[in-house]
Amino acid sequence: MEYSAINVTPLTPGIGGIVSGVDLTRPLSNVEVEDLHRALEDRLVIFFRDQPIDHEAHKRFAHYFGGIHIAPSTKPWQAPGHPEVTIIHADADSTFVAGEDWHSDMSCDAEPPLGSVLYLHTVPPVGGDTAFSNMYAAYEALSERMKAHLEGLNAVHDAAVGFGGITPDGMTLPRSSHPVIRTHPTTGRKAIYVNKGFTTHIEGIPRAESDALLGYLFNHVQHPIFQCRFSWQAHSIAFWDNRCAQHSAIWDYFPQTRSGFRVQILGDVPH
């Protein structure tokens, strides 16, 4: 794909692209925004280097793609004075890290976020990569019999799973039902939409059958042929489409520090 105002270098044939030629610390032109929309649609996740953004620039970038999604369950980790910004931090005192299992961000919400923009200002000297997997490709690799079997099924996504049973005081964690196979509202392509991080069971079938199907799909989406892996540097940004990509944060850097901020973009009800 050719672009007018940016350059995009594919990370793998099927997913991921490194964007250059754009400065996210300043407002973007209409042409740059149009190119970035096309790049996200084509690559599913796009990456930027050397972008020392502040909270205002972070939110401004997200707004080029829609309103900002504020998940109620992330309230304890909101940046002071910026409820739209979630603190993502791990260090020698951490007992877990956000997003360590394969997942699509906040799929437990009734209207999960369209995408997530993660900025890291501090990274370990080695390790701390994030892996991403293409859910279009994972769906297309299924047999026709399996596609037909999954079509029309819904699955429950529960925040209590994603947050490891940690419930902030006085908070009710969201729980929602979504199609096992969803259709992307922009591209019209079908994608697998169950994930190990949030999905508990498929509705309307015996639990043993549900466990078997989900176990198969959870393993299937992790196949290396669907993946790319991003090695972070300080002041890098990753922006991914939660509707057609899953990701997993690799916690191989303990006790080093990995720290930054995430902003999420409003999505829609999966269909």
TrEMBL record:
InterPro entries: AtsK-like, TauD-like_sf, TauD/TfdA-like. The keyword Oxidoreductase applies. GO terms for molecular function: dioxygenase activity. Residues 8-262 form the TauD/TfdA-like domain. Signal peptide: none annotated. Keywords: Dioxygenase, Iron, Metal-binding, Oxidoreductase. Gene3D superfamilies: Clavaminate synthase-like. It holds the Pfam family TauD. PANTHER family: ALPHA-KETOGLUTARATE-DEPENDENT SULFONATE DIOXYGENASE (PTHR30468). Belongs to the TfdA dioxygenase family. This is TauD/TfdA dioxygenase family protein. The lineage of its organism: Bacteria, Pseudomonadati, Pseudomonadota, Alphaproteobacteria, Sphingomonadales.
